[in-house]
């Protein structure tokens, strides 16, 4: 049986510039098992999908205990390494972030995304030094556990359109440098899709770079050519699944037909996948 440390080391090894780790994000045990069965080498959760599945909005609104219960269920359902999206750490202070990280490790995950967005705060992002301190607290908690947790520092400068476009990259690079110094193992910049800017970020960063992909974004080959080491689909898979739920309901109620469900997975296939976990 693969140990926790071995899974953590394996997960680290999957981050290769130019040969990116591809993550179709899951939000529960069933979606994680389906992604693994499709051939994924690792599973990453989506905080938005997890929150929605539990009846809560995304954006630091979900109870930490409920969120981490899902992480544990996902880790139990698959054999591949699991990385948990923990939003801003489900905590107001550094001690709380450390507590969340310890709980993530207890759930047998081997990576986290920790974002600098400050939902409900006075500014779109937490101040750089404050976020660096939160990452440092996460690093210490992981190191004390003996598990080489991969901390993916999410930088929301592009996702939240922080600052003027001309200086946005400079702010992103400054945050990346500070977060890496604080103990981050990688940086994640969702909302960035321009290939030339991505190339500059990869060149300047000293750790693996992760971007968010989806309709309208460059394809995997183009991103790999720029040296990207990790590509995530984020909440878009959950959004697509919920879209099917809406389309099926609308079709049933409006026309009394069921064509939306034509390409549904077979009941026995899904049942068998979960029976084998």
UniProtKB/TrEMBL annotation:
Protein name (record): 2-Methylisocitrate lyase, PEP mutase family
Protein origin, superkingdom: Bacteria
SUPFAM superfamilies xref list: Phosphoenolpyruvate/pyruvate domain (SSF51621)
One Pfam entry name: PEP_mutase
Any one Gene Ontology molecular-function term assigned to this protein's record: lyase activity
Alphabetical UniProt keywords: Lyase
């Amino acid at each position: 049986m693969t140990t926790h440390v071995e899974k953590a080391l394996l997960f680290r090894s999957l981050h290769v510039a130019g040969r990116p780790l591809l993550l179709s994000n899951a939000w529960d045990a069933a979606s994680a098992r389906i992604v693994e069965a499709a051939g994924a080498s690792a599973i990453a959760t989506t905080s938005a999908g997890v929150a929605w599945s539990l009846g809560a909005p995304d954006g630091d609104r979900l109870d930490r205990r409920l969120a981490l219960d899902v992480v544990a269920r996902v880790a139990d359902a698959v054999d591949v390494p699991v990385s948990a999206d923990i939003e801003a750490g489900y905590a107001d202070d550094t001690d709380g972030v450390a507590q969340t990280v310890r709980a993530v490790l207890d759930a047998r995950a081997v990576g986290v995304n920790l974002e600098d967005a400050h939902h409900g705060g006075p500014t779109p992002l937490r101040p750089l030094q404050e976020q660096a301190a939160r990452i440092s607290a996460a690093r210490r908690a992981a190191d004390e556990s003996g598990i080489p947790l991969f901390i993916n520092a999410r930088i929301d400068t592009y996702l939240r359109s922080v600052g003027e476009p001309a200086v946005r990259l400079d702010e992103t690079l400054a945050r990346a440098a500070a977060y890496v110094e604080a103990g981050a193992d990688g940086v994640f910049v969702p909302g960035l899709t321009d290939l030339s800017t991505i190339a500059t970020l990869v060149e300047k960063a000293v750790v693996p770079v992760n971007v968010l992909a989806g309709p309208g974004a460059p394809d995997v080959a183009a991103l790999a050519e720029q040296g990207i080491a990790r590509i995530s689909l984020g909440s878009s898979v959950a959004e697509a699944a919920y879209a099917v739920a809406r389309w099926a309901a609308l079709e049933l109620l409006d026309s009394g037909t069921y064509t939306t469900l034509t390409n549904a997975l077979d009941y026995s296939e899904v049942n068998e996948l979960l029976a084998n976990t």
